[in-house]
Write a structure and sequence with these properties.
The protein is built from four helices and 15 strands. It is of the alpha+beta class. The strands form six sheets. Strands 6-1-7 form a three-stranded antiparallel beta sheet, with no helix packed on it. Strands 8-13-14 form a three-stranded antiparallel beta sheet, with no helix packed on it. Strand 10 and strand 11 form a beta hairpin. The longest helix is centred in the N-terminal third of the chain and has 16 residues. The radius of gyration is 28 Å and the shape is elongated. The relative contact order is 0.16.
């Protein structure tokens, strides 16, 4: 009944507006009414971001984002698929297709704020890349990218230019007495977070050597000074993977 009343009212207004004696102001009012009706169908609103991962030991590796699309059939992955399908579907994130992701000059998919090193989908779960869950990229929850949850994206600088952290001052590690006596050598692999202050935080061993060399590696790297990662010229916190080599001369 409501639909019939509205349709009848619109038809009556159109009939009146076609009359030659109608005032110009009335035509403007009818055009405004039609404009309001046209705007009743609003575009879909996208929310604030997401995250993902595949429960790997390494943090998410640095890389470019996939394109945004209204639907996600395949979540992104930093690794090549183990089984090559006959029909390949391009990985996507849920968000407006016209959005331009951050400019990261890398061939592989990943987190623009991730660490340099071997490809890794990160410690999160549910597919995708990062430390969150549900098929997105980042440390939040949802099939999008950003600093909030729910899919889509957030206003965090999607046209921004991001640079990775780099070493400014490096302290060489010392050998432990046990390793020196045993003539033991190798490489300790560790992950850190480089803060906005350029100092390492949350140092964690990923591949151990033992014989006291892990402690010597942490002791040395904790004294390193970095140029922090930057987004649009402003320092940001970012993960990095460090290799500390122990070689006998």
């Amino acid at each position: 009944m409501s639909l019939g009343i509205h349709a009848g009212a619109i038809a009556l207004l159109i009939l009146i507006s076609s009359h030659p004696a109608i005032r110009p102001g009335a035509r403007d009012a009818i055009d405004l009414l039609h404009a309001r009706i046209a705007r009743l169908v609003a575009p879909k609103a996208y929310r604030g971001g997401g995250g993902g991962g595949q429960q790997e030991l390494l943090p998410a590796s640095r890389g470019r984002l996939p394109k945004f699309a209204p639907h996600q059939f395949t979540p992104p992955s930093a690794r090549e698929p183990e089984v090559q399908a006959v029909l390949m579907i391009e990985p996507t994130l849920i968000g407006p297709p016209h959005v331009k992701p951050p400019e990261v000059d890398l061939a592989g998919l990943g987190d623009p704020l991730g660490r340099d090193g071997p490809p890794s989908n990160g410690p999160g779960k549910g597919g995708g890349i990062g430390g969150g869950r549900d098929g997105g990229v980042g440390s939040r929850n949802g099939p999008g990218y950003g600093d909030e949850d729910g899919g889509g994206l957030s206003a965090m600088g999607f046209t921004s230019h991001i640079t990775a952290p780099s070493v400014l001052y490096k302290v060489e590690p010392e050998f432990s007495e046990e390793a020196r006596k045993a003539k033991y050598q190798g490489t300790v692999l560790m992950t850190i977070e480089v803060g906005e202050d350029g100092k390492p935080h949350r140092l964690r061993i990923l591949r151990s050597l033992g014989l006291g060399l892990d402690e010597k590696a942490i002791e040395a790297v904790s004294r390193w000074i970095f140029r922090p990662a930057q987004r649009n010229g402003r320092p940001i916190r970012a993960a990095a993977t460090i290799e500390v080599n122990f070689r006998l001369l």
